[in-house]
Design goal:
The protein is mainly alpha-helical. Helix content is 64%, strand content 0%.
Length: 198
């Protein structure tokens, strides 16, 4: 799925209007952290003036080291689940650590939602979702972007979900940074739809 959708899901699911500003920031970050290796790789490719293939398997840069290791770490369900457990322990262990534990639960919960939503919609570009326990990849029958593998259907569902979540966030949160972020993250859907018709 697109990163902006993951961010909207994470913010809507883990954010609450009464939370501190840094908790709300972690709610947004939970949706983007599992994709950070891709953004860093693209930035590195531009800075280093890389001219080779970026995505095609197996020679593309994305499929090389260290990018595959970074992807495995950031998309690991066991690691995010462990982080969620540590956050819960901190939250319950002490009044001094309560807010730190809450923050860790918010971040790891958003990241776990991200990787779970990615799990069924990646085909030959599947992540290693169970690192370090296993290198196994689930190659799903549905792609979030390939038309030949129901990408148009998934894209439509994603658009409706994203717009609905943005509206939910705008109406639920009185904080203007939350509302502004939701509006900014809706823009890519309309740019994508615009490319289909113009």
């Amino acid at each position: 799925m697109m990163t902006n959708t993951h961010m909207l899901v994470a913010a809507a699911a883990t954010g609450r209007p009464q939370l501190r500003w840094w908790h709300l920031t972690l709610a947004w970050l939970g949706g983007i952290v599992p994709d950070l290796n891709i953004f860093v790789m693209i930035a590195w490719a531009r800075i280093s003036r890389f001219t080779g293939n970026m995505w095609r398997e197996p020679e593309g840069l994305y499929w090389q080291q260290p990018w595959q290791t970074y992807s495995a770490i950031l998309n690991s369900m066991p690691l995010w689940a462990a982080g969620l457990g540590v956050g819960y322990w901190l939250f319950r262990a002490s009044e001094k650590l309560k807010e730190w534990g809450r923050g860790l639960m918010i971040l790891c919960g958003g990241c776990l939602l991200h990787v779970k939503m990615d799990f069924p919609v990646h085909t030959d570009d599947a992540h290693v979702h169970f690192w370090p326990l296993s290198e196994w990849r689930f190659h799903g029958p549905v792609s979030y972007y390939r038309g030949s593998q129901f990408g148009d259907v998934v894209g439509t569902i994603e658009l409706v979900l994203g717009v609905g979540l943005a509206a939910f966030i705008i109406f639920r949160f009185p904080q203007w940074p939350m509302r502004l972020m939701a509006l900014l993250l809706v823009a890519p859907y309309f740019l994508r739809v615009g490319r289909l018709f113009f």
